[in-house]
Each structure stands twice: as C-alpha cells, then as structure tokens.
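ok so heres the complex, two chains, lmk if somethin looks off
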Amino acid sequence: MALLQIRDLCIDYRTTAGTARAVDKLSLDIEEGEYLGLVGESGCGKSTIAKAVLGILPRNGAVAEGDILFRGRSLPHSSLQELNRLRWRDIAMVPQSAMNGFDPVYTIEAQINEAIDTHVSWSREQKRKRIDELFAFVGLERGRAHDFPHQFSGGMRQRAMIAMAMALDPGFIVADEPTTGLDVIVQDQILHRIKEIHTRFGKTMLLITHDMAVVAENCDRIAVMYAGKLVEHGAHNVFETPFHPYTMGLCNAFPDLADRGRELISIPKAPPNLLTPPVGCRFADRCPFAAARCRAEAPALVEVGPGHVAACHFIDRAAEFRMKARDIGTWQGAAAAA
Amino acid sequence: MHAWRTFVLRRLALLLFVIVSILTMMFFLFKLLPGDPTSVFVDSNFPDDMVQRQKALWGLDAPIWVQYLRYMGNMLTFDFGTSFFQMMPVRDIVVEKLLHTASMIVPAVIISVALGATLGAWLGWRRGTRREGAAVVTLLTLRSVPSFFAGIMVLMIFSYWLGWFPPGGMVSVGGAGDSFWETVLTIDFLHHLALPCLVLVSREITSPALLLRSTMLEVKGSDFLDVLRAKGLPERRIVVHATRNALLPLVTDVAVMMGFLFQGQVLLEIIFAWPGVGRELVTALNDLDYPVAQACFFVMALIILITNFIADILYSVIDPRVAYD
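and the predicted structre for the whole thing:
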C-alpha cells in the first residue's frame, strides 16, 4: 500500500464569482521512500494539494469529493484531534520560502521546541541535543538558534524551517515551493539539503515546484498538473519521452545543460478559467496539436509505458509531437490559429 | 544589549528636554495670564509699599531670569510652593488629588484593556459572523457617546431611579480612612467607584477592542499561522500566537489612553463629584490659585510623557524587530 493515496480528489474554492474547482478528480500515489515532484504553472492546483494533505486549506477552500489516505487513514475525514496527532510527527512541511513561516515574536529555538513539546515530552537536555543535531544537519551555527526570525536571511530561515520539519523525524515531508524567491546559489543549497533528507534518512517526500529542472535533478518520480488535472505521471521517462504536449512545452521552457544551443520556448497564452473550465481537454486551447475531438471530449489517463501514464487523445502520435514541439514555430502557430 | 541601553538613554535625554521645554512654556504662559497674583492677597486700596512688600516676599521683584531659574529649580525638585487658598503645600494637594484620580482611572483602564483586548481578539478571529457585526456597531456607538451625556444617563438610571448607587463622591460622609489605602480598600469606595468606572469603561473599552480586532485581521492573513496549524498545535495555542502578534500596537494605545485619562476626566469628576486632579485644576484656575494650577498642569504633562516613555521601552522589549537607532 502506498504511503499517501490521493483518490479522485476534488477541491473547491468558494469565491465571489462562483465556485472554482482547483483540483479535479485527481488520483496519485506516493510510495514509501519515494521522492515525488509535482510540477505545474501557478494556479494549477499543486499547492492546493499540499495544503489539503496538511489540512491547512484556506477558509473558503474544501475537499468536495474524493479522499486523501495516509497509511490508509483518511485525512479529510479525520477530526482535528486525530489530524493534530499526525501532524509534524508523521507529516511535516517546509513552507514556501516567500512565506514568513516563523512567528516573528518568538526565537527560532522556541518555535522548534514548541513543535516538539506539542507532540512528545522530552527533557530540556533532549531538546537541546536534538536542535544541535538539526542545526548541524542543515548547516546553521548553533548559537543562532536564539535569534529571532528577522535576524535570519531568507536562505537561513529556510534552513531553519527544514530543521524544524525534521525535528520529530517524520516519515513524510511536503516541501511547497521551498526555494521561490531565493537566489540561485542558495536555492541549490536548500534543494541539496532537502534531497539529503530523502537520500540519507529515507524519507518520503513531496516537492511542489514550477521548475522542471529542479524536479529532473532531484526527484525519483514526477507528476505534471495542468488546470487542476493530472496530465502526466511517471519516472524520468516523463522528461525523456513526454507523451503529453503540455509536458513537452514545459521541458522546452527550461534550459538543458546537455543541449546548450537549444532555444527556450514558452507556451503562449494562459490556462483556462477554473470557474468555467472547458469541456474537453483543458490544454486544447494552447495545444499546437489540438483536434476537434480534444475540444469535445476530456482525455483519460492511459498507460504509455511501465509506471508512466499520460492524458492525451493522441498518445500514439507522441513521437511526432515531440519532434514538432522543439520547433518554436509550432507553438507560435497555435497561438495565431486560436 | 548595548544598542538597547543607548536607545533607552537617548529616550531619557529626549524626555528631559521635553520636560524643560514644557516648564519654560508654562512659566511664560502664567506670566501672560490676566490678573496679578498679588491682587488676590492685596486689596487695591492698600498702600503701594504693601504691594511691593508682598511682591518682594514672593520674589516677584527679582529680574525675570532669576525668577525663571528659581522656578525651574523648584519645579524640577517638585517643590510647588504653597496654595494661596488652602494654605498648605501644593505638593500634598496635588499628590492627594492625583491618587483620587488614579483610583478611578487605573481600575477602569485595567478592566477596559483586559475586556476590550479579549473581545477584540475574538471579534477579529470570528470576522464576518452576525455577532461580530452587531458587536462592532455597539462599540462604535459607545465610542461616540460623549462622557457627560453617558454620565448623566447612568446617574439618572442607577442612582436616581433605581437607587442602587450613590450619586457622587468617593466615599460616604465620614467614610474616609486615615490613609489613601484605608479609604480605597473599602466596599463603600467600590460602591462609589462603580458608576464613574462604568461610564469610563463603556468608552475606553472601545479603543482596545476595535484596535485589536483590526490588528487581528491583519495577523490572520499571516503565513506563519498555516505552519502553526501544520505543526499540530491546538486552536487555542494558535489564537495565543495570533493575539501575541496583534497585541503589539495595543501597548502604545494603552499608554496614550492612560495619559489622556489623567488629564481628561474633568467632566466626569464634576458630574460624579469626584475630588480628582481635573476638578482641582478647574477650581484653581477659577480662584487664580496659580501654584496649584501650575502644579496640576505640570503633573499631567509629566504623566503623559512618562507613559509614552514606558510604552517606547516596553515596545522595544516585546517586539524584537524594533530597531534601536
């Protein structure tokens, strides 16, 4: 049984303009010890999934249908007390680096201690030793634990966040865009730490990002989301031989060290409005290969290889699409045609 | 820590500068006041040399800068002279009246801040409910009622109609103890305190409540609350975190409130016949009792300055982000 099973999950946001379905009938498994990267554009629903797993959806958001099972136990159907027992002990998070994840009026150490004290009763000595270990692991000076969050740089804060997430040795860690807004070198250091959690301690990880290159470099498996739907899911073959035109587009948009001469191509136009999603394939409007069928009928996820699924009507033409997708004219043509 | 000490010292220096400025302004203001203080004591029909003798006795014949220096020295050592009318040291009078005012204001402030902050935090946390809307309207109404009107209404209802509380004064006739504390720590005093305190609280509760409600709304959008929730903290602890952050601006508010209450309770003290410093000031000005009036002004200004100073220092302690430069 997978550690985390997401089953036909639908998440709605009530807005003044109507109800927006941010995640639509999404199913996804994360196996024990797996490092999964969930990629997609802003607003595709990837952070919403992270929030739903942790039970911290905003007030206007709710799981409308489906389920999230952690070790077979439903998270959305748990009471707050049951959820609070799982939180941080079994499921911890590294929040978006752009977020102010620490309470500004308490020291870093006080906040890590608070996480520990909420779940276990350790002596002061035990807690101190634990913070010694954690700070050594993330590469922070031990003396700085007494500092307040505002005395830390963005990168240091994120290291401290990783330390706090590790405090109770949880089995599953969700990192929601942990490096947005940090400079490239710090970004790399942080991602390296997070990967180490996985490689050294064998933790199951979910990394949410919009950066294809980050996932390619760090994760075992990758799930691509578009407009609330899962469009492709698999191991490294997702980059090597993508079957969904959106994944092909995403791969084009990031530089490839092996192919320095390649031009970066962005996908024209914006994702659909989730208040009134299109009937057919959600990507049809931006897809250079879209046919009449794509606008009428939503494609289902089909197996395209071992442990590799994609949701496209034309998976049998994927090889041809991959060739054409490398040409910038293909994408500009799609923009002009619509 | 060193930076903090410099910060405190600089604030202290500034405080001293402001005190000296206020005293200087007061010196010249009282010189400009119409009516010669000697006229209260010396009838205009008396011979001129008697007037001169009286002036010499009070040092009013000395050059102005000598008078100024003497005045400064006296004020800064809290030597306010003798009252023209009560023939006792002004310091004793002012201290007594100040304690009376404090005995009304301090309980009212404590109640207002405790209740108001709790109410405000709750309102902010429960934003958008019907109860919250009703509470905000009530608070705004209470805030808009002038204290003389509220005072008279409260007197009419609870004292005149219902007869539950005495109509004024601090204690019943003959109820005063030998010392301040003996007077204040009696049921009789609390009985007299109830109505003025009620009027004060009904007004002063609105500021911390509305302030905390709005700061709570700001804090509620903070990202760190999500992390606290994900940490598995019970709701109660999360509200504590949010409130702790929302409380910061309240410190300044309370300090300013305290200062203003000490000077602004003239109306309430008159309505409830409360022998406080505000009423004393009005009486002293009417009687041209300059030493008392001067001392009252000075002490009120001093209280505002000191409460603000305390707020600054306190703020730097409770909010670690305050920079000391």
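quick notes: The longest strand of chain A covers residues 18-30. thats all i got rn
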